[in-house]
Automatic annotation (TrEMBL):
Domain Protein kinase: 28-284
InterPro entries: Kinase-like_dom_sf, Prot_kinase_dom, Protein_kinase_ATP_BS, Ser/Thr_kinase_AS
Keywords, sorted A to Z: ATP-binding, Kinase, Nucleotide-binding, Serine/threonine-protein kinase, Transferase
Name the UniProt record assigns to this protein: Protein kinase domain-containing protein
Chain positions recorded as ATP binding sites: 57
Sample GO molecular function, one term: protein serine/threonine kinase activity
Family: Belongs to the protein kinase superfamily.
Pfam families: Pkinase
Location of region: Disordered: 1-21
The UniProt record lists the keyword Nucleotide-binding: yes
SMART domains: S_TKc
Organism: Anaeramoeba flamelloides
Amino acid sequence: MNKFFRRLKPSKKSKGTQKHKKPIEKYYELGEVLGQGTFSTVKKAIDKRTGLPWAIKILPKSGLNENFKLVENEIEILSTVDHPNVIKMHEIFETTDKIYIVMEIVTGGELFDRIERLDHLTEQESAYLIKKILNALKYLHSKGIVHRDLKPENLLLSDNTKYAEIKLTDFGLSKVMSDQDVMKTACGTPIYVAPEILSRKIYGPQVDVWSTGIILYVLLSGCAPFYDENLPVLFNKIKRGKIHFPSQEWENISESAKDLIRKFLIVDPRKRISVDEALNHEWIIQNGDYAEEKLSMFEFLQEESEED
């Protein structure tokens, strides 16, 4: 059997997500609103048992309708994963009218917001983030999980520091693959969607690699490589896959970074760079590792300062 195609299994590190029918207020003190989505509200909460802070996603059942399946899918997947770059789910509470998902709290907001605020990031910052994303994908793909909706809005930052930890979230459109279950469903966000999805071809984990390439392009330039307000025109551009690096945004970006982007955005998924190959690309090694070493040195000096 192909190594990639495996049934979803609980994480060995996880003891399983606890589910409760009792009122959540018995265990948590709900506080300020952290975020508001189409179908949910996220609030900060303090665990009365431990005093630890958490984020609680509150979903009214009445507003979910056909989206209930997406919530079930996200809960099922999050209950099986345990990785530093994937958001952690702690426990679930369910009442007659609401679902409460208790998750680790992050304070840095969406990667999208950081890009919007700064316009673009440096090569070192971008490589650091892309390496984290690739590590998360390597883990998910090894468990047979394909995210299918990778984008800056679904990447959360642990805090507001320059080299914050990144957390992959929003697994509603994710899919677990098996030998008998190849994927053909069209899904994802238009700008980040892979050409094989648009062509209604059978596809696999390489769709996440394509999306990572789009994210890298956006991180370095603040622009999308393929864009048009007319969706059919946009989709044709994606399926053709012709990449341009306008001099105004790209004149100071290294050829090594452009080389990796080109390899991420190869239209044929069989020829597209793999997650492992990307992690070993010279640009990731030179820039991503340097950023991690810089962060480790900063943390070391901070600890030394606190001891003094």
